[in-house]
Amino acid sequence: MDTPDRIDWSQARWLNPPLRSHVDGGDLLITTDDRTDFWRVTGYGFTHHNGHALLTPLPEGTAVEVDFDADFSELYDQAGAMVYTDEFTWLKAGIEYTDDAPHLGAVVTRGMSDWSMAPVPEWRGHRITVRVSRRSDAVTVRARRAGESWRMVRLAPLDPTAPAAAGPFCCSPLRAGLQVRFTGFRLTSADTGIHDDPAG
């Protein structure tokens, strides 16, 4: 699968449908419900599993790319790509708004969640692509601003025999009404190596 296959929005399944969603000229526009998130226990003592994700199967040896833009303005507003096995095992990666700036980061959950991030204020107002690539026992996460090179975000474990799905996600933990425009959703071949940039 050297050439990415565009995934039609209608071919994927919702994990927690959003308040509103519709297709606009090929893009998918999503408006989040009130106080939505994916998180398990760590640091906060609560579990939230009501964020919005639109998922398609992610077999070993494949990758999903998600393009999006949004006006992140409230604490913890977030969007990007998710890899989902079950409510105890998942990964989300992309942009999260905190400390008055967009941050590039990831949450990996295996029973309990962790969180890593770095500020990317120069990405504000730009289209972002997140790529999640599954090969062997790992998921490699990369991201980039439109027109720039990929940045490595995370390498995380994933049971090679586990059924998993991936696709765009978004959440707004402290409010309703975050609007996200997803402009692309593609399935392609997994990265050939951890240090090899994907084509394109």
Automatic annotation (TrEMBL):
Regions crossing the membrane: none
Pfam families (alphabetical): DUF1349
InterPro entries named among the record's database cross-references: ConA-like_dom_sf, DUF1349, UCP022704
Protein origin, superkingdom: Bacteria
Descriptive protein name: DUF1349 domain-containing protein
